[in-house]
Design goal:
Elements (H helix, E strand, L loop, with lengths): L2 H30 L5 H25 L6
Amino acid sequence: MTNEDERELHAELARLQQEHRDLDAAIDALHQSPAPDLLRLQRLKKRKLALRDRIAFIEDQITPDIIA
């Protein structure tokens, strides 16, 4: 992996982590509303899970393999 590839992965990782935090805040706000839109809530949670999977994949790509 080149340095440029690694920088791009770090940039994407930071963007995805920020989006994940934003979704977390949106989900919390939706839970606090008097009549939460359950369909929207379900979609936000599904998107948050997809982001978590993508974040884990990128972190695995960045972390070097160490053979013990």
